[in-house]
Amino acid sequence: MEFVSEEEMDLIDTAIAATSPSLTSSVALAASSPSLFQKKSNSIQSITSLARRRLSFGAESDIEDSFSLARNQKKRRVAESFLRRFRSKTGLFVSDITGTEWCEKQMEFSLLFGSRKVTEAMKIGRARHAKLEKEVVKKVVVQVNSVEDKWAVRLMKFIIGANQLLTEGLTRELPLIGLVEGVWMVGVIDEVRMPVTESDRNPKFVDTKTRVKNTLPAEPQKRKGRLQLMCYKYLWDNLVTDEFPSNRLFNFFSLNPYSILSEEIRENAAKSGFPAKIFDDMVRHYRHKCSMLPPAHDQLLVRYELQKDNKVIGEDLFAYDSNWLKSQIHCCLEFWLEEREANCTPRRALEMQVLSI
Predict the structure, then answer these.
(1) What is the pTM of this model?
(2) What's the distance, Cα to Cα, between the start and end of the chain in Å?
(3) The pLDDT value given to residue 24
């Protein structure tokens, strides 16, 4: 109930009140006049039979109209989807995929009525990630004057982080922007390590999770962490093996490639070794840096720390599973494109979630 405001409840009550008389009268009519109800049913069957005969006789215009109607309905559904309504300016977050896999109904309520409140445990977890980032990354605040500047800052962070990875073998809080299954997706990798051996130069991804209790999470929560890291690898591998589709980025987010970047962005980019005057310059540097990087390692790692003292509770080392990942992404995209209704989390998974708190 905390997701629904008083105004929204008034709208729901009004809608129910408006439909109740018609529903009541329809039920009463069917009960009191079964013969009349049967006549209406026969009429519906007659209309259905007529429609079938017209289709079976092969009226090509009717078939084409049916296909055209189906296409228009699909376009309308995509245009009104959760993806278009809530992620048209940002792209789909990796956390959107993991959150949808965890519980589609919860994600639906968060989109429609607002996300849940930030808990104390969530604040501690964010503070821990900020501290880990500060250990290896120096933050610089720059002024942004346009939406192109905001995107340029994200691309610049990746370029600087990738340079640090190649020279020092470690970087943290590395942002990723790319296409996954035809959908723009963004995410931030907690930690990327570059092996020192010459025979193995594939970056390794590490994600740090903080825990309130000194216990490892239940299997559904472990699966959520694995899905997150697999999404990062899939996104990374697409970036480094395929040419970055710059024009699709400009078109989807309505970005001007010739927009002049803010003075502070231009200065910091020049100091970092990749001068950029307009937004398209930064995109070209991003595309070039991606082409220099190898695919990520197939072994992925999730570390679980105790919030109280940052002691490592345990680690989950697992292998990348391309088939499982794609099936999970496709299932989640069905929800985001509103190709079907949202599903609820199975009862057993909810019980395990409660037990793991």
Answers:
(1) 0.73
(2) 22
(3) 39
